[in-house]
Specification:
The complex is a heterodimer of chains A (about 180) and B (about 550). In chain A, about 20% of the residues lie in helices and about 35% in strands. Chain A is an alpha+beta fold and about 180 residues long. Chain B is mainly α and about 550 residues long. In chain B, helix 2 packs antiparallel against helix 3, helix 4 packs parallel to helix 5 and helix 5 packs antiparallel against helix 6. Classes of the chains: A alpha+beta (about 180), B mainly alpha (about 550). The interface between A and B is medium-sized, with 23 and 19 residues.
Chain lengths: ~180, ~550
C-alpha cells in the first residue's frame, strides 16, 4: 500500500463518516453512548454520561487497610480521587503488567470522587437500545460478578457500523456499591 | 698245522736247498778227490819219469865219460898229445849221482806201492820196484867194471882198458835196457793210474747221480707236502669264492685258523658279510634307483609338458612384450602430450596465480568496502534510532490526542444537544489520533524491520568482511596452492620427461628383452629336445634299473 493509496483510503473513510452525519442526527433518540474499555481480553462498556474525564495512568498512593479493589488514591485537579481497579472489582485478578499504560476513568457520580482503572479506553460506541441484550438478574456466571453487568451489546450493533467486537455493559452504581459508603 | 704256509714253504725250500748243498759239497769233494788222485798220479809218475830220464841221461853221460877216457887213452896210445883231464873224478861224481838217483827211485817206488790207490797200481809199482832193484844190481856190476877200466885209464894201462872195454860196454847196454824196462813198467803204472782215476770218476758220478735222485725225490716230497698244506685249503677257498661268484652269499667258510688260509677264510667271511650287506644295500638302492628312474621319467615327461607350456608362455610373453613395446611407444607419445599439457597447465597456473593475486587484492578491497558499508550502516542505524525517538514522540502525541478526543467526546456528551457537533469533531480527532497511532505502529514496525534489516545487514556485512578476510586468506592459500601446483606441474613435467627418457630406455630394454626372449625360445626348443633325450635316457635308465634289479635278485642273501 503506497502513500497515495493510503491517502485515498483515508479520504474515503472521512467522506463516508461525513456522509453519515445526517443519519446520526435523525436516529439520535434511539441510541445510547458507551465508552468501551479494555480489560485484558474483555471489553466493557460504560455509559458515557457517568464519566467526567479520561486520565492517563499515573502512580497511585496506596492506602493501607483498603479493600483489594482499591488500588490507591491520586490527586487530580486538587481533589483526592480513589482509584478502583475495575478488574479486581469484577472479581478477576490484578494484572500488574497493565499498571503503567492504563487509563483512569474519572466518574461523574455523586459522593466521594472515584476513578476506575482500566487497561485502555478504546473508543466511543453508540449502540441502538434495541440491540442491547438485557442480562438476567441472576447471571449464569457467578464467578464473573454477573450482577454488575446489565446487558450485552453484540458485535455489529453499533450505529455507525464501525469495526469492533461486542462488549458487556456495566451497571456502575451496582458495581460501586460495595465501595461507597 | 700251526706252522704257517710261508714257514712250510720256507722249510721245504730249506730242506731241498740243504740237500742240494750237501750234493754240491759231496760232488765237489768227489771232484777234488779225482783231481787229487790225478795230481798225485801225475806228479808221482811224472817225477818218477823225470828221475828215470835223468837216470838215463846220467847213465849216457857216464858212458860218454868212459868213452872219452878210453878215446883219450887210445889217442895217447897213438902218441897224440891229449889234454890231461880228470875223467875219473867226473865219472865218479856222476856215478855217485846215479847211485843216489837209483836209491831214491827204489825208495819212492816202494813208498808209492804202499800208498797206491789200486791194486793194479800197487802191482805196477811192485814191478817197477823189482825192475829198479835189478837195475841197481846191474849198475853195481857196471860200476865196478867201469871203475876198473877208469882206474886202468888213469894208470894208462892200455891193454887192460882194451880187455875190460867189451864187458863194460855189455854191462852198459844191459843197464840201458833195464832203464828201458823200468820206463815201460812206469808206463804200465801210468796206465793203471789212469784206470784208477777213471774208476774214481765213475764212482763219484754214480754217487752224485744217486744223491741227485734223492734230492729230486725229497723235492717232490716237499712239493707234495706244500701242495697238501696249501693247495687244498686254497681249492676250498676257490670253491667258496666260485660259490660267491655264482651269487650265493649265504655260506661261510669253515677255514678259521691262525695261518694265512685261516686269516683268508676269516677275511672272506667278513668280505661275504660285507658283500651280503652290499647286495642288500645294492638291492634296496637298485629298487630306489628303479623308483627314481621312474620318477625321473615322469619328471622328464612333466618337464617336457612344462617346456611346452614354457614355450607357449615365451610366445605369449613375446606377444605381450610386443604389445608393451607398442604401449611404451604410446606411453612415450602420451607422456609427450602430457608434458605439453602440463606445460600448458603450468602456463595456466601462472595465469591462475596472477588471477588469484588479483582476487586477493579484490578481496582486500571488498573487505575495506564492507567495513565502510558497515560504518555507513551503523550511522544509518543511529539515524533510525533518532527516527524511533521521533516516532515515540509522535506516538505519545497521538496517545494524548486520543485521550483528548475521548475527553472532548465526554464533554460534548455532557454538554448535551449543544455539544453534539463538538462530539463529531472529537470523534474525528479520535479517528485522526487512532490513524496517527496506527501509522506510528506501522512506522514502528517498519522501523523495527529496518533495524532488524540493519542489524542483519551489519551482521551480514561483518560476515562479508570476515568472509572477505577468509577469502583473502583462502586466496593466499590458493596462491600458495597454485604455486605449489605450478611447482608440482613443473616436477610433473620433469617427471614425465624422465618418464619419456625411461620409456625410451625401456624400449631399448624391451628390444633386448625381445632378443633374450628369442634366445629363450631357442633355448626352450633345445630344452624340449634335451627333455626328449632325457626322457629316452630315463626310459633306458628304467630298463637298466630293472636289469640291475634282476642282477640284484641273483644274489641270495
Amino acid at each position: 500500500m503506497n502513500e497515495t493509496e493510503l491517502y485515498r483510503v483515508l479520504l474515503d473513510e472521512r467522506s463516508m463518516a461525513l456522509a453519515a452525519r445526517g443519519q446520526a442526527g435523525r436516529d439520535v433518540a434511539a441510541q445510547r453512548d458507551y465508552l468501551v474499555c479494555a480489560l485484558g481480553n474483555e471489553r466493557y462498556g460504560i455509559a458515557l454520561g457517568a464519566i467526567a474525564t479520561v486520565l492517563p495512568q499515573r502512580l497511585c498512593t496506596v492506602v493501607p487497610g483498603a479493600p483489594a479493589a482499591l488500588r490507591g488514591i491520586i490527586s487530580h485537579a486538587g481533589i483526592i480521587v480513589s482509584v478502583i481497579d475495575l478488574g479486581v472489582a469484577l472479581g478477576g485478578g490484578r494484572d500488574s503488567a497493565t499498571g503503567q499504560s492504563g487509563h483512569l476513568l474519572r466518574l461523574r457520580a455523586e459522593g466521594p470522587p472515584v476513578a476506575l482503572a482500566v487497561d485502555r479506553v478504546i473508543r466511543l460506541a453508540s449502540i441502538e437500545a434495541d440491540a442491547i441484550t438485557v442480562a438476567p438478574t441472576a447471571g449464569p456466571h457467578p464467578g464473573l460478578g454477573a450482577e454488575a453487568v446489565s446487558g450485552y451489546a453484540p458485535a455489529g450493533s453499533e450505529r455507525d457500523g464501525a469495526a469492533g467486537g461486542g462488549f458487556a455493559i456495566l451497571d456502575l452504581p451496582r458495581l460501586l456499591r460495595p465501595y461507597l459508603p | 698245522m700251526s706252522i704257517s704256509i710261508a714257514n712250510r714253504i720256507l722249510l721245504g725250500f730249506a730242506a731241498v736247498t740243504a740237500v742240494l748243498i750237501a750234493l754240491g759239497l759231496y760232488a765237489s769233494g768227489q771232484i777234488s778227490t779225482v783231481r787229487e788222485t790225478m795230481d798225485r798220479i801225475v806228479s808221482r809218475d811224472l817225477m818218477v819219469l823225470r828221475q828215470l830220464d835223468d837216470l838215463g841221461n846220467n847213465l849216457r853221460d857216464l858212458g860218454l865219460d868212459r868213452r872219452n877216457a878210453v878215446i883219450s887213452v887210445l889217442m895217447r896210445e897213438r902218441s897224440r898229445t891229449v889234454a890231461d883231464e880228470q875223467f875219473y873224478a867226473s865219472w865218479n861224481r856222476k856215478a855217485d849221482g846215479i847211485d843216489s838217483l837209483l836209491a831214491d827211485l827204489v825208495r819212492e817206488s816202494a813208498a808209492f806201492r804202499q800208498a797206491a790207490i789200486s791194486d793194479e797200481r800197487a802191482a805196477s809199482w811192485e814191478r817197477l820196484n823189482g825192475v829198479l832193484k835189478e837195475a841197481v844190481e846191474n849198475y853195481r856190476t857196471l860200476r865196478s867194471a867201469s871203475d876198473a877200466q877208469m882206474k886202468a885209464v888213469l894208470a894208462k894201462d892200455f891193454d887192460r882198458v882194451e880187455s875190460t872195454n867189451d864187458e863194460a860196454t855189455r854191462l852198459f847196454e844191459v843197464a840201458v835196457a833195464k832203464i828201458g824196462r823200468a820206463r815201460s813198467a812206469l808206463d804200465e803204472s801210468i796206465t793203471a793210474g789212469q784206470q784208477g782215476v777213471t774208476d774214481t770218476y765213475e764212482r763219484s758220478r754214480f754217487s752224485i747221480l744217486m744223491t741227485l735222485a734223492g734230492a729230486v725225490l725229497l723235492s717232490l716230497l716237499v712239493t707234495w707236502a706244500i701242495s697238501r698244506a696249501v693247495v687244498r685249503p686254497i681249492e676250498t677257498v676257490v670253491a667258496f669264492v666260485e660259490r660267491i661268484g655264482t651269487g650265493d652269499l649265504t655260506g661261510r667258510t669253515a677255514l678259521t685258523g691262525k695261518d694265512e688260509i685261516g686269516r683268508l677264510g676269516i677275511t672272506l667271511n667278513g668280505m661275504v658279510g660285507g658283500l651280503a650287506e652290499l647286495a642288500r644295500t645294492n638291492r634296496s638302492a637298485t629298487a630306489d634307483l628303479n623308483a627314481a628312474a621312474a620318477e625321473i621319467r615322469a619328471s622328464a615327461q612333466e618337464q617336457a609338458a612344462s617346456v611346452e607350456e614354457q614355450f607357449a608362455a615365451v610366445q605369449e610373453t613375446a606377444a605381450t612384450v610386443d604389445e608393451i613395446t607398442h604401449s611404451g611407444a604410446q606411453i612415450s607419445k602420451r607422456a609427450t602430450d602430457v608434458i605439453a599439457s602440463a606445460q600448458a597447465s603450468a602456463q595456466t597456473a601462472r595465469q591462475g596465480l596472477r588471477a588469484a593475486s588479483d582476487t586477493a587484492k579484490a578481496m582486500e578491497l571488498i573487505r575495506e568496502q564492507g567495513e565502510a558499508v558497515a560504518g555507513n550502516i551503523v550511522a544509518l542505524s543511529e539515524k533510525t534510532q533518532a527516527i524511533g525517538e521521533i516516532i515515540t514522540t509522535v506516538n505519545d502525541i497521538s496517545e494524548r490526542t486520543h485521550l483528548l478526543s475521548l475527553n472532548a467526546a465526554i464533554e460534548a456528551a455532557a454538554a448535551g444537544e449543544s455539544g453534539r457537533s463538538f462530539a463529531i469533531v472529537a470523534a474525528e480527532m479520535k479517528l485522526l489520533a487512532d490513524q496517527a497511532k496506527a501509522a506510528t505502529v506501522q512506522v514502528r514496525s517498519i522501523l523495527s524491520e529496518i533495524q532488524r534489516g540493519i542489524n542483519s545487514s551489519v551482521m551480514l556485512t561483518e560476515e562479508a568482511v570476515k568472509r572477505a578476510a577468509t577469502g583473502k586468506t583462502r586466496t593466499d592459500a590458493t596462491v600458495r596452492t597454485i604455486e605449489e601446483m605450478a611447482a608440482r606441474v613443473d616436477e610433473g613435467v620433469q617427471t614425465f620427461q624422465q618418464i619419456v627418457a625411461s620409456t625410451n630406455q625401456q624400449q631399448l630394454g624391451i628390444e633386448q628383452v625381445m632378443g633374450a626372449l628369442q634366445n629363450i625360445r631357442q633355448a626352450s626348443q633345445q630344452t624340449a629336445a634335451g627333455t626328449r633325450e632325457v626322457e629316452m635316457a630315463s626310459a633306458n635308465l628304467t630298463e637298466l634299473a630293472q636289469g640291475l634289479m634282476a642282477l640284484a635278485e641273483r644274489y641270495r642273501i
